[in-house]
Amino acid sequence: MAAMEKRAAEYHARAVAFARALRKPPFHPETVHRLRTHLRRLQAYAEFLRRPIVARRLAQNVKWLSRLRTLDVLYQYLRRRKAPAKDLRRVAWALKEEAMMVASTGRLEAIRSMLAKMTLARLRRPVAFVEDRLSALRQETSEQLAAALHKLSPEATRKELHRLRLLVKSLRYKEEIALETAWADPHRMMALKRLQRTLGDYCDRDQFRRLAKKMNLACRGELKKECRRYRDRARAAVLKLGPPEEPASDLR
Q1: CA angle 192, 135, 44 (to 5 degrees)
Q2: What predicted TM-score, i.e. pTM, was given to this entire model?
Q3: Is it the case that residue 60 has pLDDT exceeding 50?
Q4: Where are the alpha helices (DSSP H) in the chain?
C-alpha cells in the first residue's frame, strides 16, 4: 500500500508544480499537457478509492483546460505540416484568446486551490478496503471494457470512440496505480496504453477537423481525409479486441 500511496503523492506533487508554473499567458504547451495528465491520474486514483465527489471535481478541472490543450496541439501539428500562414495565424489567435480566458476566469487559481485542499490523507482508505479494490481490479477492468464494447455500433461513431477512449484512459491509470503491488499486471497496462494511443490519435484528428471547419481553415479538406484514416485505424483496433465476452484475453 505504501508504494501505491507514494505513486499518488508523486502525481499530486507534480500537478501542484505544473499548476503553479501556469501563472500568466502565454502558457507552455507541455506544462498544460502535464497538468491535465496528472489531474486525470489523480481522478483515476479517487475513482479507485471510491471518492466520487473528488473525482468529479478533478474531471471538471481537466475539462477547463481541454480546448486550450486542443488548440496547442493543433497549432504545433499545423506548423509541422507547413500549413498556410493564414491558417497558422487564425489558430494562434484562437489559442491566445483561449489562454487569456483561462487566466481571466480564475480557473488556474481554482485548480491550485483544489489541489491544496485535496490531501492524500483525506483520500486514504483502510488497508482492507484497498486490498479488496486491488483484488477486484482485473475483473472490474474486464467487465467495464466488455460493457463498453457491447454498446458500440457495428461501425463505431465519433462519440462512441471518444467515450471509449476516456474509459480506456481511466482503466490504464488505475492499472498504473497497482504497478508496485502484488496485483500488478504490466502487460495489461501496456495493452491499454496502446489502445488509448490509437483512440487518442483519432480523437485528436477529429477535434482538428471540427476546429478547421469552424475556423474555415484552408487545410480543412486535408484534415477531414486524415481524420477518416485515423477513424478506420481506431475501429480496426477495437475490432481486434474480439467479442465483448473476451476483452481480458485480448488485452495481453
Answers
A1: 50
A2: 0.90
A3: yes
A4: 2-21, 29-48, 52-64, 66-80, 85-104, 107-117, 120-123, 127-151, 158-177, 186-214, 220-239, 247-250
